[in-house]
What we know:
The protein is an alpha+beta fold. The chain is 46% helix and 23% strand. It has 2 domains: 1-62; 65-206, CATH 2.40.50.90. The mean pLDDT is 84. The protein has a 5-stranded mixed beta barrel. Strands 5-9 form a two-stranded antiparallel ribbon. α1 packs antiparallel against α2 and α1 (2-25) runs antiparallel to α3 (114-125).
Amino acid sequence: MHKRQKILTNWRKILVWVAVILTIAKVWLPESIIAPLAEWTQKADSIVRSVQDLLNGKPPVRGKKWAVASKGRYSGNVDSVHDGDTVHIRDKDGHTHKVRLANIDAPEIKQAYGIASRDALKARIEGKYVDVNVVAIDQYQREVGQIILNNADINLWMVQQGYAWHYDSIAKKQQDRLGFGRYQSAQIQARQNRLGLWHNASAIAPWQFRQQQKNR
């Protein structure tokens, strides 16, 4: 049993490295090649995790029990990362929460740097136990929250690394002056250092990208 677990753990490490390589390769390979490979990597990782759960005696998940928490705080395991600002978290009761990261906006998957943003968040928190501070429920009944991992603000980290924008038009209504200033400062520094999406000086904000898609 231990040997099988070790093999599966090694496979997960390989898949993480594949995701990292795909992110780097995006510089010179077209999105049409990167996207399906990234999708395959994510599915393969999900299968490996399911087998690990079975070996650990956990029953297979036959259907997700969805939940929406009211404003407040809870903890859970990050089951999956949908994109650079949306994740699924399973709480201690086995209920799955769809969480939209508060105060940031990551590139859409079909947008430049969208896959890189998702993969960065995936490598940082997927499979890990986190705290969630729910600040609102959006129009799609998603929890809007701040994710904390080992006392680190993951939402802020995404901005610091150039994986997401500070969603200032929304954040003005949700953040206090100190928090708003911290995120603004992080974005300015990431842009000055040309980190992540800021490699492109004329990067299009996700809200602008979505509007362009609607107008087509």
